[in-house]
């Protein structure tokens, strides 16, 4: 492995270890995420007892809710506060004296912290599979493409989170920005309710944003709501958002770094 | 060619200008006003390779801001900086490879991990070979006793241990230029002594050092040159010995006489010296101009005539000179 990737790996591993340092966090994520999944399952079972709604029957919804659990656990369990805190308390000054690309280092840390959610995801999915026996992917190809979509959630989540964290350079606060991002993400991704249940104009708004790729894209591919060409198109859009946010963040950071005003020692 | 060169280095910050209290807060919400505040004001600074420079000044003088400008953290509002020929803000990453930075008030350790994990990550960041890493750690262990707390979580360290670990982090890649911003702040005397000995060794090895500190013993023991900054501008720049020679023009002897000291009578008898009562009734402080009298002359004359039972010499104090520089009593 080249030295450049060794540094990325080291950042990711250290972020993962930091998560290991707080073991109760895993349990809390499992209880909260698993609890939310159970509540969601119960609600949809009742709602869909009379038959399919907006193209979702109980079989499809079971798989949808599990995919929503996977993406929500990965995205909401990552270490956005670590990045925000460093900007807010001035530790960014230390980061800027290190011979690493700030964004790339934070990306490696973020992905490392996302990997720390894998045990929670694995346990949650295993439990849900045993309890609810969801249907498998629409086809083997759909299964593979769903996995690709879930992998793309890593850079996508980083881009979205990093861009919102960079806002701290101007706002000097993070909580409100985080709440706004998480509310938009939960609503427009389809984690809360599938986009198909929304009016068409709202769906159009959602699809003009990166959020649907967090849940709707992998579940649509998994359930066969799109054919292979459609799935590839969705994956291309997901990758384009990830790349766009990566390069957009570079521009924002170059402006933000001029805002560094760490006074005193 | 200097290793570091700053010309007309200036940093201006914009600060909110709002009145105190609820009314002021509301007014600022609807009618925002800002004031410009110049933290660093046209500094010219040139440092040659291998120099050890103390950068001192009162609180708020602009020391830390200067360090942040020199290390590439902040972008100058005006002026230029070149460190090893690079603009540290524009060429931040190549510059960061060659410098080591320690901010005494901010740790670079990963707070919830063992110290050795932070050092390993830095090893990767700087591309330090296994052999160099081991050799440097062994040296740090010798000089700073790192081994005892390498496996400890950073958040469990005492301040002294934390500072020693941070120093190792700043130096693990053997940087050519090192900036230490208040490295001994809050440390007890034994840890300070150990750090100073380590820094002296670093300087002897040829590392260029810029040290800011409020502890003037750090400066006298480690540095050869001193730059005094006040209100963002340089008030003095030169060798510490020269500063002493130039501004410390008096010396003092404390005499302990057999009986109570009669200060007016002594002042009348020896009008060439300044006399003052000491802390004890039998103690008297004699101050003389060091460019007019040698210490041997003064002591010879006084001991022959007053036969004191004891005496002590007051060492020239750089602290007093710097205090007077801060107060504007002395000029460049």
Number of helices of chain B: 12
Greatest interface and its participating residue counts: A-B, 28 and 39 residues
Assembly state of the chains shown: heterodimer
Number of helix segments of chain A?
13
Low-confidence stretches of chain B: none
Shape of chain B: globular
- What are the segments of chain A in which pLDDT stays under 50 over at least 5 consecutive residues? none
Query: Radius of gyration of chain B, Cα only, in angstroms?
Result: 25 Å
The secondary-structure class of chain A comes to mainly alpha
Number of domains of chain B: 2
Radius of gyration from the alpha-carbon trace of chain A, in angstroms: 19 Å
Q: Could you give a short account of the major beta sheet of chain B?
A: 6 strands, mixed
Helices and strands of chain A, in order, run as HHHHHHHHHHHHH
CATH superfamily of the largest domain in chain B: P-loop containing nucleotide triphosphate hydrolases
Helix content of chain A: over 70%
Question: By helix and strand content of chain B, what is the structural category?
Answer: alpha/beta
- Number-wise, the strands of chain B total 13
Question: In the CATH classification, which architecture of the largest domain in chain B applies?
Answer: 3-Layer(aba) Sandwich
């Amino acid at each position: 492995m080249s030295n450049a990737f060794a540094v990325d790996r080291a950042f990711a591993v250290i972020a993962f270890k930091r998560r290991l340092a707080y073991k109760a966090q895993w349990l809390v994520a499992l209880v909260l995420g698993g609890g939310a999944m159970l509540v969601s399952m119960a609600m949809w079972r009742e709602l869909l007892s009379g038959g399919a709604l907006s193209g979702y029957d109980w079989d499809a919804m079971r798989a949808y809710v599990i995919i929503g659990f996977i993406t929500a656990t990965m995205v909401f369990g990552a270490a956005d506060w670590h990045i925000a805190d460093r900007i807010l308390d001035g530790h960014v000054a230390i980061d800027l004296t290190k011979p690493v690309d700030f964004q790339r280092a934070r990306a490696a840390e973020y992905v490392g912290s996302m990997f720390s959610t894998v045990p929670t995801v694995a346990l949650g999915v295993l439990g849900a599979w045993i309890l609810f026996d969801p249907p498998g992917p629409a086809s083997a190809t759909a299964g593979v493409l769903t996995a690709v979509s879930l992998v793309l959630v890593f850079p996508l989540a980083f881009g979205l989170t990093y861009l919102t964290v960079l806002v701290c350079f101007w706002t000097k606060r993070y909580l409100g920005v985080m709440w706004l991002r998480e509310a938009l993400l939960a609503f427009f991704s389809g984690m809360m309710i599938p986009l198909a249940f929304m009016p068409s104009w709202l769906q159009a708004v959602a699809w003009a944003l990166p959020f649907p790729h967090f849940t709707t894209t992998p579940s649509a591919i998994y359930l066969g709501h799109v054919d292979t060409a459609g799935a590839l198109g969705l994956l291309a859009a997901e990758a384009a958002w990830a790349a766009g946010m990566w390069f957009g963040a570079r521009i924002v950071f170059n402006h933000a770094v001029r805002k560094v005003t760490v006074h005193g020692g | 060619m200097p290793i570091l060169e700053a010309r007309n280095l200036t940093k201006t910050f914009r600060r909110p200008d709002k009145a105190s209290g609820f009314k002021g807060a509301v007014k600022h919400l609807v009618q925002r006003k800002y004031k410009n505040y110049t933290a660093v004001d046209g500094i010219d600074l040139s440092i040659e390779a291998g120099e050890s420079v103390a950068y001192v000044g009162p609180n708020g003088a602009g020391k830390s801001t200067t360090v942040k400008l020199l290390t590439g953290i902040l972008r100058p509002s005006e002026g230029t900086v070149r460190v090893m020929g690079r603009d540290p803000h524009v060429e931040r990453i190549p510059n960061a490879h060659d410098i080591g930075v320690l901010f005494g008030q901010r740790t670079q350790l990963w707070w919830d991990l063992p110290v050795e994990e932070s050092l390993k990550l830095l090893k990767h960041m700087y591309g330090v070979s296994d052999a160099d890493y081991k050799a440097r750690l062994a040296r740090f262990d010798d000089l700073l006793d790192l081994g005892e707390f390498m496996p400890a979580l950073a958040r469990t360290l005492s301040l002294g241990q934390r500072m020693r670990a941070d120093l190792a982090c700043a130096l693990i890649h053997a940087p050519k230029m090192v900036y230490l911003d208040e490295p001994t702040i809050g440390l007890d005397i034994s840890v300070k002594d150990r750090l100073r000995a380590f820094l002296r060794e670093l300087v002897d090895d040829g590392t260029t050092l810029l040290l800011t500190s409020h502890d003037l013993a750090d400066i006298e023991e480690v540095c050869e040159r001193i730059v005094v900054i006040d209100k963002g501008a340089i008030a003095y720049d030169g060798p510490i010995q020269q500063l002493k020679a130039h501004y410390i023009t008096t010396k003092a002897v404390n005499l302990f006489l057999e009986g109570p000291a009669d200060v007016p009578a002594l002042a009348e008898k020896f009008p060439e010296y300044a006399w003052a009562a000491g802390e004890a009734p039998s103690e008297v402080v004699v101050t003389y101009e060091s460019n007019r009298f040698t210490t041997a002359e003064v002591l010879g004359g006084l001991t022959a005539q007053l036969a004191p039972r004891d005496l002590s010499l007051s060492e020239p104090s750089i602290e007093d000179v710097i205090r007077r520089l801060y107060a504007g009593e002395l000029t460049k």
